[in-house]
Inverse folding.
């Protein structure tokens, strides 16, 4: 089987497994993103969670989670010296990214709460996991 795989398949499989592992760690109360400084592990406010829940109704959650996971693991974690934890995730960071699906990115720029800071990105990712889990338990179809 491995001989038949192409690099794109392997990268896609790695991403899928990594995101799923991150989900499982989050749902079991463990930290999915090790070695991120405490300044970048700020919690969301109740109002931000409410606004985020409203925005999430318009997203394909699996695609958004994969995008955020890639952002946190590849771009964010290795570039903390470039980013400031109080920058707006939407206005200062996502607007300037050159990876990911452009349509999804444009949608994110228009729908995600603007006051979520870069320091709250991990909390937002975790919140989306719990939101998705809540939908699953309520019997809503969640595509994988």
């Amino acid at each position: 089987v491995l001989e038949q795989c192409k690099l794109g398949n392997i990268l896609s499989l790695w991403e899928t497994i990594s995101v799923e592992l991150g989900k499982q760690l989050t749902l079991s109360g463990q930290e999915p993103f090790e070695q991120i400084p405490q300044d970048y592990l700020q919690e969301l406010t109740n109002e931000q969670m409410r606004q985020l829940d409203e925005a999430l109704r318009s997203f394909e959650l699996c695609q958004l989670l994969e995008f955020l996971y890639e952002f946190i693991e590849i771009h964010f974690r290795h570039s903390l010296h470039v980013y400031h934890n109080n920058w707006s995730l939407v206005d200062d960071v996502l607007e300037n990214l050159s990876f990911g699906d452009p349509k999804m990115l444009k949608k994110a720029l228009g729908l995600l709460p603007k006051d979520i800071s870069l320091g709250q990105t991990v909390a937002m990712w975790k919140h989306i996991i719990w939101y998705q889990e809540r939908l699953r338990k309520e019997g809503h179809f969640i595509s994988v």
Q: What stands out?
A: DSSP finds six helices and no strands in the chain. The helical segments are 7-27, 46-56, 61-76, 89-93, 102-111, 121-137. The mean pLDDT is 84. Residues 42 and 120 are 5 Å apart (CA to CA).
